[in-house]
């Protein structure tokens, strides 16, 4: 048993300031387990508790020349451990918030980009199907759905009845829906099973 074990904390600190490794070892052995148990109770992680206590003792060694401890060494060590625990918890919360934020951004941005891509694909399919409509049907459909004319206005402009205009639009929508329904089924399938 080392004679240093019998020394008071104050005397050990004096030796520590003179680069005495034995004094440091005795301080470490005297308080390490107590501080680790204290940190573990708060953090519920043995690894984190061990890391924090190691950091406290490394800091004590690194600052041994400037150490000016008012009060007991035990109080100083518990306070230093508590501060490192609080810093650790704050850091973990920041990292967690950042990760959640980044994940949310990636998911939302991907979903937004993916939705825009699907919308563009659908728009192109609809435009292609409008182009494939018979001339008169396409003309009526464009006047109604693109130019937003009423059926009466279309009838006057094309010299047809409003019922004919309505029928042409109905037939055009039926043809377009028949072509885009398979596309929509694929989109819905992708949304629910692959995203």
From TrEMBL:
What organism is listed for this UniProt entry? Tamlana crocina
Q: Which domain of life is it from?
A: Bacteria
Coiled-coil parts of chain: none
Please give the family membership noted in the entry. Belongs to the sigma-70 factor family. ECF subfamily.
Q: Where is the RNA polymerase sigma factor 70 region 4 type domain?
A: 125-176
The molecule here is called RNA polymerase sigma-70 factor
Which keywords does this Swiss-Prot/TrEMBL entry list? Sigma factor, Transcription, Transcription regulation
Q: InterPro entries in the record, alphabetically?
A: RNA_pol_sigma-70-like, RNA_pol_sigma-70_dom, RNA_pol_sigma70_bacteroid, RNA_pol_sigma70_r2, RNA_pol_sigma70_r4_t2, RNA_pol_sigma_r2, RNA_pol_sigma_r3/r4-like, WH-like_DNA-bd_sf
- For the keyword Calcium, the answer is no
Domain named RNA polymerase sigma-70 region: residues: 28-92
Q: Transmembrane residues, as ranges?
A: none
């Amino acid at each position: 048993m080392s004679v240093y074990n019998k020394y008071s904390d104050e005397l050990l600190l004096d030796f520590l300031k003179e680069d005495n490794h034995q004094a440091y070892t005795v301080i470490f052995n005297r308080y390490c387990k107590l501080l680790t148990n204290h940190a573990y109770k708060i953090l519920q992680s043995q690894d984190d508790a061990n890391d924090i206590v190691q950091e406290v003792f490394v800091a004590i060694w690194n600052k041994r020349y400037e150490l000016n401890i008012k009060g007991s060494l035990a109080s100083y060590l518990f306070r230093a451990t508590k501060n490192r625990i609080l810093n650790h918890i704050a850091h973990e919360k920041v990292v967690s918030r950042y990760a959640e934020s980044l994940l949310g951004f990636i998911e939302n941005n991907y979903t937004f980009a993916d939705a825009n891509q699907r919308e563009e694909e659908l728009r192109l399919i609809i435009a292609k199907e409008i182009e494939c409509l018979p001339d008169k049907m396409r003309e009526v459909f464009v006047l109604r759905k693109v130019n937003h004319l009423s059926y009466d206005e279309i009838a006057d402009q094309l010299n047809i009845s409003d019922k004919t205009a309505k029928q042409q639009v109905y037939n055009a929508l039926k043809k377009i829906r028949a072509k885009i329904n398979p596309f929509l089924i694929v989109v819905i399938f992708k949304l629910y099973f692959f995203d």
